[in-house]
Amino acid sequence: MWKYVFLSPLALALASPYSYRTNPIQCPVIFDGRVPQNFTPASFNLASTSPYSPQYVKGENLTWSEIILLPNTTTSRFDTLLVHRPLEVTINDASLFRSGSGLQLGFRRAGLLLRDDKNAAGADAADQGVVTFHWSVRQDVSRSMNLSHEYMNVWHEKADYSGNQFTFVGGVVLPVDGGSGLDTPEEKNVWKIQNHKNEFVFRTPIRNDVWQNFGVQLDYANSTIRVYYSAGNGPLEDVTGALPNDNSGGGQLQLGMAKKPTETETVVWDGYQEPMPQGEGQIYGGVFVEDSSNGCVSL
Ligand SMILES: *[C@@H]1O[C@H](CO)[C@@H](O)[C@H](O)[C@H]1NC(C)=O
Ligand SMILES: *[C@@H]1O[C@H](CO)[C@@H](O)[C@H](O)[C@H]1NC(C)=O
Ligand SMILES: *[C@@H]1O[C@H](CO)[C@@H](O)[C@H](O)[C@H]1NC(C)=O
Ligand SMILES: *[C@@H]1O[C@H](CO)[C@@H](O)[C@H](O)[C@H]1NC(C)=O
């Protein structure tokens, strides 16, 4: 009869060759954005509980408890089963920002900032030495992206907002952001990582069936960028080697969803956005920033 015993997800995980009991994080953690298992969406409203800023970056009139979902999907590679859980950042027609008296109607955005990630050049340990930024994503098919649009989902933005050291984008990237703007399947259904010049240094298909794990390593002394990637629970692989990159300018890691308009001149003020009655979401897990100064990287 043992063959017919139903194995709980926990038993399956413990039985798998990549056991979750081994913590794959091997290096000193600078910022830990992993979500404790006992969190509720309201935990993100308070600086006392959330690893993220309760204030930024969300549409006016919205609270994080209205934006964050805690989906019951499997645990990602760099989260620990029964200790951490995934979070989902959502956007909808109300994900709007104001500048002066005007609503910025071009884009829709909700973005998390790590609470202790200071926005000044060299202000914290993630802006010096060698640092690896980690995140995993998974798709919520009931709130999927419309990949005819550009989605900027993770980036490290310079303290003076003049650019990003790297950017993680999906969908049809606008020409103003370094993309082709071509609404073809080859362009749409692909994750891309861009360097500080918005040149694409890595591409991989967006998958609906598994977690996808990314690491971006910035070497501030040698001025390089290196991308790590794996699907499912596989160990990360170096998929680019060290490439030249201008990592100066400090700043902060941004993580969430920023949906750009189509048919736009300014991105911020004009362009087309179809209504999103169900909203759209992006599931994140295993968000952390580690010190790779001693050649250490968690795979
Ligand atoms: C936020 O609330 C104010 C006051 O009710 C309202 O005027 C404004 O339009 C709202 N903003 C959005 C984006 O809905
Ligand atoms: C996850 O499951 C719990 C318990 O069944 C439920 O309350 C919660 O709404 C679920 N989360 C999502 C995002 O569906
Ligand atoms: C997806 O976006 C494109 C470009 O804005 C739009 O034409 C299309 O109607 C959208 N699709 C859905 C299902 O909303
Ligand atoms: C940075 O450059 C130095 C000197 O060329 C080299 O020894 C070191 O291995 C480089 N660091 C990395 C992480 O590649």
Automatic annotation (TrEMBL):
Organism from which the protein derives? Paraphaeosphaeria sporulosa
- Any idea where the Glycoside hydrolase 131 catalytic N-terminal domain is? 29-295
Kindly list the organism's lineage.
Answer: Eukaryota, Fungi, Dikarya, Ascomycota, Pezizomycotina
Q: Which UniProt keywords apply?
A: Signal
Q: Name one Pfam family in it.
A: GH131_N
Extent of the signal sequence: 1-15
Q: Which top-level group of life is the source organism from?
A: Eukaryota
Kindly provide the name given to this protein in its UniProt entry: Glycoside hydrolase 131 catalytic N-terminal domain-containing protein
List, alphabetically, the InterPro entries matched: GH131_N
